[in-house]
Amino acid sequence: MAIRSTRRVVARLGRLFRRAKRRGLKALRALVGPPARRGAVKALRAFIERHAKRRVLVLGDSHMRVFDHWLFLFANPRTKYHVVYVPGGTAIGILNPTSKSGARERFDLELASGKWDLVIVGLGEVDTAHALWRMSRVRGIPIETLTDRAIASYTTFLDTVRRDHRLIVVS
Question: Which end of the chain has fewer surrounding CB within 10 Å, N or C?
Fold first, then answer.
């Protein structure tokens, strides 16, 4: 029974997608309301789990959750995005093993957990919006010095990731 209903949902998704390509994205959003979309997205995620040809690991702060959006699933039905985000993860703290967010530990665990076709990394927004300014005010360190430290630690982390994986940086 579940297979039959999944097939129906995937077939409906295909019809909606073809119609949306003709009419545009707003038409798709109007056709698929939130309750129907939840079921369709659930079926699409199940389809992707079974049929994904590419496995992409996405690492970063909370802004990287965009890769979990249903439009990404819809646009790339043969790509499995595994999103690992750490709220408050910063570029300046990525090399700190005792950071409050624990981002480096989580990222290292996920990087070692499987073979990834591609790794996408996005950090730095939290740094530029909050962390560096606060550290500068609290510790009395010039913002330029902190920015240089953040860039140095971030590039060191990216170099370690790049050694073993294909890498895209979206910071």
Answer: N
User: For 15-19, 77-81, 91-95, 130-134, which range has the lowest pLDDT when averaged over its residues?
Assistant: 15-19
**What is the three-class DSSP state of 141?**
coil
What are 90's two structure tokens? 């910063």
Question: What whole-number distance in Å separates Cα of residue 48 and Cα of residue 42?
Answer: 10
Amino acid at 79: T
Q: Determine the residue type at 55.
A: R
Helix (H) or strand (E) holding 120: strand 118-122
C-alpha–C-alpha distance, residues 90 and 86, integer Å: 9
Q: Which three-class secondary structure state does DSSP give residue 105?
A: helix
What is the enclosing helix (H) or strand (E) of 3? Answer: helix 2-23
pLDDT for 1 equals: 39
Render pLDDT for 6-15 as a digit per residue (tens, 0 to 9). 566 667 767 7
Comparing CA positions, the residue from 53, 62, 59, 75 lying closest to residue 169 is 59
SS3 state at 162: helix
Tallying the residues shown for the chain, one arrives at 171
Is residue 114 a contact partner of residue 55, using CB atoms and an 8 Å limit? Answer: yes
Q: How crowded is the C-beta side of 119, counted as CA atoms within 13 Å? A: 25
